[in-house]
Specification:
The protein has about 675 residues and is of the alpha+beta class. Helix content is about 65%, strand content about 10%. It is built from 23 helices and twelve strands. The strands form three sheets. It has a five-stranded antiparallel beta sheet with strand order 2-1-5-4-3, with helices on both faces. Strands 7-9-10-12-11 form a five-stranded mixed beta sheet. A hairpin with a 4-residue loop joins strand 9 and strand 10 (about 605-615). Helix 10 packs across helix 12. It is elongated, with a radius of gyration of 45 Å.
């Protein structure tokens, strides 16, 4: 009769709630599943009133309890996802099927096999633990709505803890205690207001949720304790099944050992920490949304200017933004000591005294060995966590910076940052924050190191450009010197010839212009490409080069004009290209050999061609492919710069033409210049 009153009150309460839910329109599949769970609980409570239905059999008790748990499991499965459109979508989800599978098997199995009631006790223990696990997931995922979900969590949590205790005890003693069954109706009735409050608070179901870390440790330990009690219940069942005079004694021993082991679990900080890290690593979402954090860091780093100081400051600010801190210093480790390259400090004091410098040196050495991010506040409380690190505690207290973050390069500390929270909340340096800061510091360190490497490359490129410019100037000086040599070689013979005098002054005027151009190049420290393109007939340029610059060397080139059209080129540049190639042909050919310059037109390809043929030593194919057009690679020793062929090829390609080479060792070579006809 006592139990009937409790179940009757609970039935009336759930009936009122069911009617209320049916009259209030709320969207979402979870709301309809709540109606189903409430209706099932009403039927469950009503069916256990002995005045209405007579004495309760054990099979009926177990069946209705499993049905009730099945309804609430289905409701919780519908609360943990947002995109359910109907009940069919909930049921076809693999996770949902896994959740409700134990309850369905427990309902169907008695009709197929002869099942001992003890196995049903174990099934109900599993279902209670399953509800507790899902409640934890729902609560952690509630994010800002945890306040709304909390009464629902307490309602189902307290009820299922009681269910767990009831059937854990039944498993150990092989029968359900009547007192537990009689009390259930009152317990559910007294917890009912929590469910009503939660329904009034929750405006929608299945929200996109964030995992709270505040309850990870305690709730996880609750699951560990529950699992342990479940194991103990199984052991108790086994002892009870075997029977004998040892049953009671062993049961007492197991109970005492259970409490001792549970006390160890709750009192051992190391054990609790390991459990927490394992569970949060493998079962729950991360504290940080790494995709969002990475995009934020990348955007911040790309805002940096071109100067090295801006890059250092951006790197430090990126670290501060990662943990929402106010102040910090960025140091670079050099052979001369520690250089503060960036600061974000309210005090603006970046100077280190002798003791602080010694402390940072110790941290550098320790991080170089371990590669760790160091929490100096944690060191003051738990120095044993940093085995082998011995810092001056007084200096550390006055230091004011909490986090020491190293930047590693080739297994050595390239630099480091020290960060302080200022007025912000300090970050607890757990395993995930350490991994996060290691990833951020790796990105920031790589960003800074790449910038420094780019600076070195840019400086080297400037030196290379200056060297290249110097090489071209020297190459032009050789050409000028050749013109002067030609004048001096013919001066004695033709000094009384007015035409020779006129040509000499013209050559000297041209030489003066070339010298002025070279001086300007040296002054401006860059290669000046002043191109003066106009319509030219290449035969005239060839005649001038051969007559004025190549006639002093044997064999004297012979010019053969087959066909010609005008082209748009820089006369001076083409003259230099031709002089170099013809001069090379002369130097590679014996005095009694031949050098021919042939001009013709390829009508199909619309190109004016100049073929410079010689009967000289020739070149190997490997030399042509690998060395001929490689700048600063010469076979003339100190007499050559190795840029003539490269310069010719580069110029022709710049105007849309090309330079091809055919050669055979011992027979000679042919350079073909293709000039586009516009």
């Amino acid at each position: 009769m006592v139990s009937d009153l409790g179940y009757g009150l609970n039935s009336l309460a759930h009936l009122a709630l069911l009617l209320l839910l049916l009259t209030v329109r709320k969207p979402g599949v979870a709301k309809h599943l709540l109606v189903l769970a409430t209706a099932t609980t009403f039927v469950w409570s009503t069916s256990l009133i002995t005045v209405l239905f007579g004495p309760i059999s054990l099979n009926w008790l177990l069946t209705v309890d499993i049905v009730k748990q099945l309804a609430w499991l289905l409701f919780l499965a519908g609360c943990i996802q947002t995109n359910f459109q109907n009940l069919h979508h909930v049921l076809r989800r693999p996770a949902t099927l896994m959740i409700i599978a134990p309850a369905i098997v427990a309902l169907v199995a008695p009709y197929l096999f002869a099942i001992d009631p003890t196995w049903s006790f174990l099934t109900l223990i599993v279902l209670s633990l399953e509800v507790l696990v899902l409640l934890e997931v729902v609560y952690r995922q509630a994010g800002r709505e945890q306040w709304a979900f909390k009464p629902l969590i307490i309602y189902l949590g307290a009820a299922n803890v009681f269910e767990f205790v009831t059937y854990a005890n039944a498993t150990m003693v092989n029968q359900v205690e009547v007192g537990y069954i009689a009390a259930r109706g009152y317990i559910y009735f007294l917890l009912m207001p929590l469910l009503v409050i939660s329904i009034r608070r929750i405006h929608h179901w299945g929200i996109d949720i964030f995992i709270s870390r505040d309850v990870v440790l305690h709730s996880s330990l609750l699951l560990v304790a529950g699992g342990y009690l479940f194991v103990m219940a199984v052991v108790g069942y086994a002892i009870n099944f075997v029977g004998g005079s040892w049953g009671a004694t062993v049961q007492i021993i197991l109970v005492v050992m259970s409490f001792a082991l549970l006390a160890t679990v709750f009192l051992s900080n190391a054990f609790r920490t390991k459990i927490k890290i394992f569970i949060t690593k493998h079962f729950f979402a991360n504290q940080y949304d790494y995709r969002v954090e990475w995009v934020k860091l990348t955007k911040w780093l790309t805002r940096s200017g071109d100067s090295t100081a801006d890059v250092y400051h951006s790197g430090l600010t990126g670290l501060l933004n990662a943990v929402q801190y106010d102040s910090g210093l960025l140091f670079k480790v050099s052979k001369s000591g520690l250089d503060c390259v960036a600061a974000a400090s309210p005090s603006g004091d970046t100077n280190l005294n002798e003791k602080q410098h010694a402390m940072l040196t110790q941290l550098i050495e320790y991080s170089g060995e371990k590669g760790w991010v160091i929490d100096t506040d944690a060191y003051l409380v738990k120095p044993f966590d940093y085995e082998g690190l011995k810092l001056d505690r007084e200096v550390l207290k006055q230091w004011g910076y909490q986090l020491f973050i190293p930047f590693m390069q080739d297994s050595q500390v390239w630099g480091f940052a020290v960060l302080a929270a200022g007025d912000k909340e300090k970050v607890a340096l757990n395993w995930e924050v350490k991994d996060y800061l290691n990833a951020v510091s790796e990105q920031v360190g790589t960003f800074i190191q790449h910038h420094e490497a780019a600076q070195v490359v840019a400086e080297n490129a400037q030196f290379a450009a200056f060297n290249r410019m110097s090489a071209f100037v020297l190459h032009d000086l050789k050409n000028v010197l050749a013109q002067v040599d030609l004048i001096l070689a013919n001066a004695q013979q033709h000094k009384h010839n007015p035409e020779f005098i006129e040509d000499t002054f013209e050559t000297l005027e041209h030489t003066k212009a070339r010298m002025e151009k070279m001086l300007k190049q040296l002054t401006d420290k860059k290669v000046i490409e002043e191109s003066v393109n106009d319509d030219q007939y290449l035969s005239r340029i060839v005649d001038e080069v051969v007559t004025q610059r190549c006639s002093s060397i044997s064999p004297i080139p012979k010019v053969h004009l087959m066909k010609e059209e005008s082209v748009i080129v820089d006369k001076e540049k083409v003259a230099n290209v031709l002089y170099h190639l013809i001069s090379n042909a002369q130097q590679a050919t014996a005095d009694d050999g031949e050098v021919d310059v042939v001009l013709t037109v390829d009508g199909a390809k619309r190109t004016q061609m100049i073929m410079i043929e010689d009967t000289g030593t020739g070149m190997e194919r490997v030399f042509i492919e690998e060395r001929l057009f490689k700048p600063f690679d010469t076979t003339k020793g100190n007499a050559g710069m190795g840029i003539g062929a490269y310069d010719a090829k580069t110029y022709l390609e710049s105007i849309g033409g090309k330079l091809t080479v055919q050669s055979e060792v011992g027979k000679g070579s042919c350079f073909t210049l293709h000039f586009p006809i516009e």
